[in-house]
Design a protein that fits this description.
Chain lengths: 596, 596
Amino acid sequence: MRTCYTGEVSREQLDQTVTLFGWVHRRRDHGGVIFIDLRDRAGLAQVVVDPDNVEAFATAERIRNEYCLRITGLVRLRPEGTSNAELASGEIEILCREIEILNTSVTPPFQLDDDNLSETTRLTHRVLDLRRPQMQQNLMLRYRVSIEVRKYLDSLGFIDIETPMLTKSTPEGARDYLVPSRVNPGEFFALPQSPQLFKQMLMVAGFDRYYQITKCFRDEDLRADRQPEFTQIDCETSFLNEVEIRAIFEGMLRHVFSAVQGVELPAAFPTMTWEEAMRRFGSDKPDLRVKLEFVDVSDLMSDVDFKVFSAPANDPACRVVALRVPGGAAMPRSEIDAYTKFVGIYGAKGLAYIKVNDAASVPEGLQSPIVKNIHTQALTQLIERTGAQSGDLIFFGADKTKVVNDAIGALRVRIGHSDFGKEHGLFEAGWQPLWVIDFPMFEYDEQEGRYFAAHHPFTSPKDGHEELLETEPARALAKAYDIVLNGWEIGGGSVRIHRADVQSKVFQALNIGADEAREKFGFLLDALQYGAPPHGGVAFGLDRLVTMMAGAESIRDVIAFPKTQRAQDLLTHAPSSVDEKQLRELHIRLRSPEVK
Amino acid sequence: MRTCYTGEVSREQLDQTVTLFGWVHRRRDHGGVIFIDLRDRAGLAQVVVDPDNVEAFATAERIRNEYCLRITGLVRLRPEGTSNAELASGEIEILCREIEILNTSVTPPFQLDDDNLSETTRLTHRVLDLRRPQMQQNLMLRYRVSIEVRKYLDSLGFIDIETPMLTKSTPEGARDYLVPSRVNPGEFFALPQSPQLFKQMLMVAGFDRYYQITKCFRDEDLRADRQPEFTQIDCETSFLNEVEIRAIFEGMLRHVFSAVQGVELPAAFPTMTWEEAMRRFGSDKPDLRVKLEFVDVSDLMSDVDFKVFSAPANDPACRVVALRVPGGAAMPRSEIDAYTKFVGIYGAKGLAYIKVNDAASVPEGLQSPIVKNIHTQALTQLIERTGAQSGDLIFFGADKTKVVNDAIGALRVRIGHSDFGKEHGLFEAGWQPLWVIDFPMFEYDEQEGRYFAAHHPFTSPKDGHEELLETEPARALAKAYDIVLNGWEIGGGSVRIHRADVQSKVFQALNIGADEAREKFGFLLDALQYGAPPHGGVAFGLDRLVTMMAGAESIRDVIAFPKTQRAQDLLTHAPSSVDEKQLRELHIRLRSPEVK
């Protein structure tokens, strides 16, 4: 039947007769001849219908965009000077012998090559939107990534084991999607936020190496690039330590990038402690492509006359940092003003800066209203410590540590990605993977006045930190690691707790009482009692990873049928109201029947 | 670290030092030496701890069943006469040099090799149950099947595209699992009963070949071997006809059986129309291993004195069939009585039979109370048509067609699988695949007084049957096919409707009005307007397929964490009650708060 995909016809089939299936991408009459660009998932080919072929020509005259065709014809070279280097089939054309219209099409609501469609239009007409070559390539790429992940994990003895979608609700962390039970009135399943506990139980059951590429669900307010259902590459292994686990999974990324895109990632990914990442970049997922970093200057500013600096410099809950921008003195005032506004989003009350006109003469060579309030010794040391050169700009952050990290961290990335940053060598293109390790076990929530698990409550403390769980939880570090790529956390994991007594201590530190722990996680505590092996793992966000590899703007561009930010499917109109009969069977009723 | 899996140590490592991880399957003292059977996912190995090794021996003395260990030792041959041919590692043992207890275990609630555990015990302690070698093998087999499916489909250009789990409820067929929406009050998602419409839309979008191994959901009362969530190998392709599609997917089964179990299925699967299957076996999923078949005798019995036969023989809604059992005259009376009771389950009011003592002398050679009421000509033709020989038994079914098909169809299988059947060559072991094709488009529901789709409403009628949709829907046949293996339907599919006008006609025949069709399936009707390609596909039930390949008794034996027949997870205690706060956020309340 089909000889090959339309987009794959090439010189190799020269003078051969081929049969192709595809859609009319464009049709044009030119000098009495009809040209059809026929499209399929592999690309385009040019079909020429000559008026000598009366029957085919008559059919071709009826053809409109997006008609579905079968075409048989002879592969020949395009006339000299008309070949198209952008197409795989650009050197050849197909002289049509026979056309069959397999299906007609009404006029599409938009041109497939229109790049300025609103997202609402695209999602409402998703079937047509998916015909666009870019979307076809994105989903093909997604498939290649997932199949290469499988090949790699298979070669290392990981086996795919399916875990349930109808699970128990354990409200902790994000909000669950609930599913009312018909058979058990008043009870509910929850869709899984991750297969975490099931994969740990598979390790206790002795499966040794597990993986799954699976849907997870979080009913959260959708930020820019989140989906209610998302896909996780979920992995777990027994009997390996942190370093061994990381080696396996950075190997996976190397394999995938190499096999799918021919890109060679570094042979060993750099590793950085969480503490260092926060200190140098104000972020636990630093974009290492940006060649700027924080310099702590609290000690220098503790006795200056400038309260904005000296107050936080003397407060252990605060930090004062400098961000040196090489060549930044040339930055236009308007850009600096824009950055001042930008850091406000993150809670910064202003954005102090110093222009370094002449690094050799302090303070005269420094230009800034704040210079006069900072004594010369501090300024001299500032220049020295930041390594500032003449022509540089130094930004400052001075506030609560979190505000400084968020604001100056975001500023750092913003400058790096700006035209200015790219022109001044502050941005190095390419793939920059990084392991961030040694995360704290807990984060303290001021509002709720208690600790929360920084990773999740099943994460093992670092060796020697077990005692801190009781004495100084804030200082306890975890065997947790995130894999960061170009400033995005694309995966994370940890060595898990495999001893029931340690697990109980962590629950205590989290203020989860023995009864509550048993009620929610009794099955895990039970499982740990039966010779649970040391184990750990990782989970990657497939949507995000593919988005980055595709160079797409949104994860919605690598998901076939995504939801909008209001969690709706514009194509099928889900969610929707349902029959009263259905609700009755599920033993529920709507809270306010009028609402709609 | 680990040299290899415990179950893989063999002669090849003789005289080498190995490091193994695993669980204590058994420990025994014998002549002052401690023997440990160490177990992992690959099997068992025997570890010998000599009292000379004081430290290891002291540790070994503390060891109990299901402790998790690391063991280092020397591989040596077992003493002559003590090797175990049942184990891969049966020729060798490991002389222990070092033991580390990685985790202790409390005493398990049952012995792992106890084969008489109740299902409640097994599912409550699923983590331990999964440690049993049989369960480990079942889930490994399941994995091998799924990965070989992927390899095969990948080689043919099928790509895995994920479809949504949060979809629109379209009550038609089975009951949906619903998910209340928080963001859109009063509205609900449904978990998908299958990705049917999404995969069709992917074909319209031009992806050409799609597959997915994915969870589907049906909130039905659970029969013996159903699960609320089950796994489907879901496939769809464009531009192929029925025969081509079947060829691809029987090739998939051949590949999987060959690659996973070394079993060669037939080079071409037999094909049988639905009409023939019902006529010869009373079933659309005949078990061809059973060498018995129906013989229609309505015409012979239309004028006999025996009302039980003559009445249905003259009623077009009924049939009269004979089932000849070679050698059946030797069947003990008690067995025949049991069968009489058995067919009652299917609505048969009795089970007439004739013993053929001497096939050459009719009617004297025939033994049965009914013989005297059937004239000799009918009896003679009966013997001739059934090919009955002396020593055979002939059973009869005479009733509404459905009752005869169900009752005598079940009887046929029952006899074939009985000891009698196996001893008398009525059962041929092995794998007997079969395509059943040409299904009717519709089934008439007497109670509701309307037609239902036999497959689903998106199935294409056979060429030339489009007109019957309006004139004689009962006679319209579909391009639908089921793949049957040893009497189980393991998959099914169809060529789909790719033209909006045909789809509308089918909706009409199903009494789905234009408004309702648009409301429920508008997105499909829209999609079909834009040059939808001819397409079709198939879906396999992975759980059932693996159950059969594993020789397991229940699909629950090939699912890691299944639900009970009351749709409960006994391990994690799902479903469960949830917080009032959660319900409030979802805009629902319980119908009767007391119910629990």
